[in-house]
Amino acid sequence: MESSRGQEISILNWKWGYVIVLCKFMTNMAVGITKAFGVLLPVMVERFNRNYATVGFICSLPGTIMLFSGPFVSLVLQRVDHRIVAMLGGVISGGCLVASGFISNITGLGFTLALTGIGRCCAYLPIALLMNQYFKENFVLMNTIASYGSTVGVMFLPVIAERSLEAYGYSGVFMILGAIMFHKVAGGAAIRKPIFSVKDNTTGQSGSEQDPSEVIRHEPSEDDDEEDGIEGGDQMTKLKDELRDDTDQGQALAESRFHTKENLENTETLNAAIVINDTKRYEEDKGILIDDNNEEHVSLLNSACDHPGEVGDLPDASRSGQDDSEKYNLCSSFISRCKLFMTKEALFLMSLPATYLRAYSFEAWVLYLVPHSEQLGITPSRAVFLSSIGGISGIIGRTITVILLVKKVHMFKIYITVGFITSLSFFFDFVGESFIIRSVWAFLQGLCFFVLDTADATFLKLTLVDESNFSFGLGLVMLIHGCGNISAGLLTGALFDVIQSYTIVFMMIGIPVLFFTINTVVISVLLNRRVKSKYV
C-alpha cells in the first residue's frame, strides 16, 4: 500500500493473514447449528410441549444474540485483549451448547442458547475486524473465501445431528455440537495483530514498526481518491513528531537561558510557559484548532504560570477532569457516531433493509427446510440430505462468487439477477412433492442464497464513505442481521401455526427476497451516481 505523500505501508507478517482467514472459516461453521436445529425441531416441540413459533424463536436465539451483541462486544474489545475475548467466547459457546442438551425447561433452554450466541460473537468479532486489517483492499474476496465455513457447516452439521440423534439421543446431539464449537478456542488462540512498516520512498528511509491504530486512521476529503486509509495516519504521526520536536527545542532553550537559576519551581513553571507558546505558535502556523480537552490543559498550564510553585497540582486537576468526563464519554461518543452515520453514511443506511430481508429469508429457509420436506411425506433420513444438497450447491455458489470477484465483476448485477431467481424458486414451491423435485429446489435455493450471502460485506465496503467507520458499520450490520434472524424464527413459526402449511410459508418467503432485489437495484443506481459525481 502507498500513501499520496510518497510513503509505502507494508505488513511484515502478512502471511499470518491467511491463518486469520482459516480462523474465520472455523467460526463460520457455527451457521450450520441453526440447520441442525431444523432436524431437532419436531423433537423439541414434543419434548417441551410448545408450538412451532415458540420453539422456532428459541432455536434462532444463538444466531440472533450473536449479532445483537456486536456493539457491546466491540466496546469490550477496546479494553480487553482480542485473543482473550475470542478464546473465552469459544469456551462459552461450547459449554452452554452442551448444557442445553440437559435442560428440560424452555426458559432455561432459551437462556443457555442466548449465552451461546454471546460466546459466538466474542469469538467472531475479533477475527472479522482483524481480517479487515490484513486484507484492507481485498476484504470482500477474502471474506467470501472464509464464508466457505458456513457452507460446510450447513452441509455437514445437520447430517451429524440426525445420525447422533439416532445413536446417542437428544442430549448426545448437543454434546457433539458443543464439542465442535470448542474448536473456536483454537481459532481465538491464533489471533495475532498485523505489524506495519512505513517506508519513505522520497528518502529511502524505513520507519519503525507501528501499531495499526496509529497507521490506519484516515479522514477522507472529496478530492481524496485514496482508499487504503493510510494517509491520515501518516499525517497525524508526522504532526505529532513535529510538535514533539518543537516542544523539545523550547525546553532546551529554557534550560540554557535559565541555567543559573536553582529554583526548581520557577524552572518548571517557565518550561510550561514555553510549551504553551510553542504549541500555540505551531497550531497557528498549521491551522489546527484546539479542542475542549486541549483548552482545558492549556488553562491549567496558564494557571501554573500565574501561581509558581503549584505545578505539582496539575496531575490531580487533570485527573479529576478525566474522571468527570468518563461518566458520560461512552454515551456521548455513541450518539455522535449515530449522528455521523445519519449525515455522512446515508447510502450505507439505505443498504440495511436489504441486509434484514436477506437474513430473514435465509434463516427461514435454513430453519424450516427439513420440516417442510417431512410434511410432504419424505422420510426424516432422506429429508436431512436436502440440507447437504443445499450445502453442496452453496460451495458451488461461493466458488462462482470468488471467480467473479477475482475478475472484478460488478457484484450488484449478480445480486440482482440471483435475487430474482431466488424469489421465483420460492413462488413456485408448490410444484412437485417428490424427493427429486425437492432436491432440485434445495440445490437452486442453496446456490442462490450462498451467492447473496456475500452482499452484506459488499454493501459495507462499497457504500461507506469513511473507512474509519468500518467497525461501527460492521456492528450495525450484525445488529440488523440479528433482527432478521429472530424475525424469521418467530414470524415464520407463528405463520405456520396459523396456516399449517409449509408450502404456503415457503411461497411467502419469496416476498422478502423480491424486496431485497428491489433494494439492491436502488443502492446500485445511487452508488453509480455518487461515483460519477466525483469525476464531474
Task: Sum up the structure in keywords.
536 residues; 2 domains; two-stranded antiparallel ribbon; mainly alpha; Growth Hormone, Chain: A
Your description of this structure?
The protein is mainly alpha-helical and 536 residues long. It has two domains: 7-194 and 350-463 and 466-534, MFS general substrate transporter like domains (Growth Hormone, Chain: A), CATH 1.20.1250; 224-339, no CATH class. Helix content is 77%, strand content 2%. It has 22 helices and two strands. A two-stranded antiparallel ribbon has the order 1-2. Helix 18 packs antiparallel against helix 19. It is globular. One of its GO terms (cellular component) is plasma membrane. InterPro entries: MFS, MFS_trans_sf, Proton-linked_MCT.
Write the layout of secondary structure elements.
Blueprint: E1 7-11, H1 16-28, H2 32-48, H3 52-59, H4 61-68, H5 70-77, H6 82-100, H7 106-134, H8 139-146, H9 148-181, H10 183-189, E2 196-200, H11 212-215, H12 231-257, H13 264-286, H14 292-306, H15 314-344, H16 346-375, H17 380-406, H18 411-427, H19 435-452, H20 455-463, H21 470-499, H22 502-534
Antiparallel strand pairs: 1-2
Helix pairs in contact: 1-7, 1-8, 1-9, 1-10, 2-3, 2-9, 2-16, 3-21, 4-7, 4-21, 5-7, 6-7, 6-9, 6-10, 8-17, 9-17, 12-13, 13-14, 15-16, 16-17, 16-19, 16-20, 16-21, 16-22, 17-19, 18-19, 18-22
